[in-house]
Structure formats: structure tokens, C-alpha cells
Amino acid sequence: MSKFNGKIVLITGGASGIGRIMGEMALKKGASALVIWDINQTNIDATISEMKAFGKVVGYRVDVSDYETVASSYAKVKEEVGDVDILINCAGIITSNKTFDLCSADEMDRTIKVNTLAPMYVARQVLPDMIKRNSGHICNIASAGGMLSNPKMSVYAASKWAAIGWSDSVRIELQDMKSQVRVTTIAPYYITTGMFDGVKSKVFPLLNPEKVAQRIIGAIEGDKKMLMLMKWIPFPHHFIRLLQGLLPMRVFDWLLGEVLGIYHTMDNFTGRKS
Q1: Given phi > 0 = left and psi -120 to 50 = alpha, else beta, which region is 152?
Q2: Helices 17-28 and 209-221, axial angle in degrees (round to 10)
């Protein structure tokens, strides 16, 4: 039986991209209700219309970067749907490919709020009830950019490094409590959802959204602690950490920049067209 069977699933950023794909997968795996939080009401309405054939779907327009909005919205979810069993923090943004000296305070603020603080805000609402029930699962979608420094995305990388550190620290806290609540941290390479339009990857292919969604759902069902997703590297998290430990920094930079081209992936970034 699937871990999603009979469960209430909340997905932030659930009306587009991999969030939307995972929502459909959760319903098909028997979720009793899918709760979508998104900033775009048009996308929410379209997603509900398309997915209602698979089960109960409820959508809320929520700015997850605002704590008071998150708190009041979760209170509505508890009243109207019930306690969330599985939370997938999927909402995220990237504002530009500017070098840091050109980034505005507003770009920094928005990026950190959505990518770092928002997952904390949402988890803070959901987690106490999960701990009381001694069951539940929180999955935080970070980025490979949170494990690898990369020029022209410094603020985004910082937001994801922070998200990974927070997410895995919460996992250890729950482990120390002997709690049955699980935390999974996901760090995917670039995904072809439109968010990273214009990105050019010299060696490693960009990831397919459906396949990424499948891997994430599988990671939740398998209670995986950490999953980094890159094609052609079986255990990318361990491989990257090994290289960082073994190679001098100048050699590591040369390998990632000149040989693998990762340091140039953002050169032609345009991002999703609004």
C-alpha cells in the first residue's frame, strides 16, 4: 500500500511545474485529499478542474512568504479539510542571472523569503500536529544549487544552501526525539519546467519534470533522508562531497567551470515568461 493512501497532502507551489505533477501522482496513489497552495489563482483553478477526476482537490491562494498568511491559511485547511499528513514544500523562485553586485535588495529579500523562510513558515504550522500524532512526512524541495556554488545565481544558491541546512537539521531533531515523523530533502539539478529557461548545460542534461516528480514521490515512500538528482552520476551528493574533500579548490573550480561547464550554466538564463 502506498504511503499516500488515505492521507491529506499539502503541496506549496502545487499549481504548476513539478508541484502540479506530484499532486496528480499523490491522488492516483490514493491520497484522501490534495491541498494546493499557490500564488496564482488562475493556475489553481485550472489544476483543480483537471485533477478533480482523480480525487478531492482543494486550492488556496497563499503567499507563503508571509508568516501571518501561512498561519491563517493553515488554520482554514485544518478546519475545512483536516490535519496534513504529508507536506511537500515545492514553491520556489529565481529572479535573474545577475552577478551579486547588481542584485537589488528586493531581489535578495524575495528570494530568501520564498526559498528559505517560506518552507520554515509552512513546516512550523504542520509539524507540531505531526509530532503529537507521531506520524507524518515533510519533503523540502531545495536544489543542487544548494550544494554547489555557482556564479550568476549567488542569492538563489544561498537560499537553497540555507534550506538544505535547515531541512536536514529538523530531520536530526526528530530523529533525536525518536519521532516517527520523517523529513526528506531533495536537491535536483536544473529541471525543464520553464523556471530555468535559457540555461545551457555542457555535460549534464537538464532533468525531465515527470521523472523528477516520480523520484521525489518514491523518496517520500521510501523514507529517504536526502536525494540529489543529476543524470549520469549514481550518487551525486556523495560524489560532489568526495571531490570537494579531495581536490584543491582551484582544481575543483577548474573541473566544474571549464571541464563540466557548470559555472557557465546561467550565462544565457532568461527564466519563465510571465
Answers
A1: left
A2: 50
Answer whether 0.85 is exceeded by the pTM: yes
Evaluate whether 2 touches 16 at the Cβ level (below 8 Å). no
Q: Is 156 among the catalytic positions?
A: yes
The separation between the first and the last C-alpha atoms of the chain, rounded to the nearest angstrom, is 40
DSSP-based three-state secondary structure for 52: coil
* Closest listed residue to residue 62, CA positions, set 103, 21, 90: 90
pLDDT at 230: 94
The pLDDT confidence band at residue 274, using thresholds 50, 70 and 90, is low
Q: Which residue has the cell 560524489?
A: 239
From the list 60, 156, 189, 263, the catalytic residue is 156
Look at domain 8-264 and name its CATH class.
alpha beta
Residue 243, classed as helix, strand or coil, is helix
DSSP string, 224-271: -SEEEE-TT-SSHHHHHHHHHHHS-HHHHHHIIIIIS-GGGTTTT---
* Sequence ranges of the domains in the chain: 8-264
187 and 229 Cβ atoms separated by less than 8 Å? yes
